């Protein structure tokens, strides 16, 4: 019988390490729990990113440098540069862009009139004045852009639109779609930027 008792003890000793292994497996499960806590942080980050997208939509027409939602021109083989189709396409593009910028200016003016409150707290007043200052700077930039659009429309009517003011070569349909108020070809614009960097 002594032999049987020894084997039972050996069996229980063997079972004990198995329990330790189970305990070790439980420890990584506890490590997985903090990973679940990290998941809500990701959701919070995603919520913070959403307002940034809204502000990007507000600035889309001015910051992208072109009208939103226009259809790019499909060039045909052997087509003459700045033909009637090109002129009509760029006239529409410039008018849409100008209209979008004018709507943004109107929206800003209404927003500033509606939000013009006399806050008793100096910090609130300072915050409001800072917001208005940023809005006015943006609108001033857009006002200058509207002036450039008007100049581009005048050049379009005169037949000078789409040609480099410096060297006279074609600016190109794709470049004009990317920046409809461009007056210089890529080479002349690059030289102009290099000169500007050297000056200051």
Question: Could you give a quick summary of the protein structure above?
Answer:
Helix content is 75%, strand content 0%.
> What's the Cα radius of gyration?
33 Å
* Principal-axis shape: elongated
Average pLDDT across residues? 76
CATH topology of the domain at 80-161: Four Helix Bundle (Hemerythrin (Met), subunit A)
Quaternary class: single chain
Structural class, by secondary structure, is mainly alpha
Order of helices and strands: HHHHHH
How many E-type strands? 0
* Level-2 CATH architecture of the domain at 80-161: Up-down Bundle
Please write the CATH class name of the domain at 80-161.
Mainly Alpha
CATH superfamily of the domain at 80-161: DksA, coiled-coil domain
Cα end-to-end separation: 101 Å
Helix % is over 70%
Please work out how many helical segments DSSP would assign.
6
Low-confidence stretches: 6-60
Largest sheet: none
**Strand percentage:** under 5%
